[in-house]
Amino acid sequence: MAKAYERIADDLRQSIRAGELAPGDRLPSEAKLAERYRRSVPTVRDALRLLQAEGLIDKEHGRGNFVRRPRTLVQRSNLRHQWEKDRVREPEEKRAETGATEHDTGLELPDLVFHAAYREIPADKELAEAFGVAEGTTLLERTYRTRYRAESAPFTLVTSYLVRDMVAANPALLDAANEPWPGGTQNQLFTVGIEFGRIEERVTARPPTAEEAEELELPPGTAVLVLRKTSIDIDDRPVEISDVVLPGDRTEMLFTTPLERW
Which of 26, 56, 183, 203 could be cross-linked to 51 through a Cys-Cys bond (beta carbons 3.0 to 4.6 Å apart)? Predict the structure, then answer.
């Protein structure tokens, strides 16, 4: 038999899903809900905590509880990599018209806010083995955050690594001021003679760290997907490694595998 707070949560949940409470609407106060359902305020709070854990409402300190606005869905397909490669040799003007985030979200360039930061770091044991270089080799660590202008949380948390000496022939690749780079990483490496041959992606899921949950504005209990992307050139050499943290409440992974005909 359902508990009192579960019945309250179910009633509010149905109102949200039916559109009677729209995204952004403020729920009645806890006292008014307690009066409506003839239950105690602590029971109402339990119901609200349940809805918050489900990602249906947000609690704003000092303001109350609000129906959560759906976040922009990101559909990340493995076909995006060929789409990016097809654009590598296009003129800069053409490449600048759109990018991977627009491809994944259906948004347009003016809808987005982009930030990039670069720094040089020594390769730790894991990254050195992944790149096939000596531990301590200088890497260029690049962090990226892109968000929808109407939202405050980024779509993903991206950390990308390049071997500095591999790209140093083009000094423009060492300066974050040149981001966002039309055509992305594939075009960047093309400028130093590197052609991508294949991309390997490994996806796992885990609870977010406190920092990730805060930056991605995750509802309590929401998991993250963690993607390790390794880009390998046509000479079978790892040339870029990215760690991408994707929020589980607004990310869809789509894998399409073309099959040869008999």
Answer: 56
Residues of the chain predicted below pLDDT 50:
none
* Token pair listed for 112: 């987005």
Rg (CA), the chain: 23
**Which pLDDT score is estimated for 2?**
77
Domain ranges of the chain: 4-67, 74-254
- Contact (CB, 8 A) for 211 and 103: no
Assign domain 74-254 to its CATH architecture: 3-Layer(aba) Sandwich (3.40)
Q: Is the full-model pTM beyond 0.90?
A: no
Exposed / middle / buried, residue 38 (Cβ in 10 Å: 0-12, 13-18, 19+): exposed
Q: Output the pLDDT for position 221.
A: 82
Report the pLDDT value the prediction gives residue 159, as an integer from 0 to 100. 98
Contact 68, 58 (CB under 8 A): yes
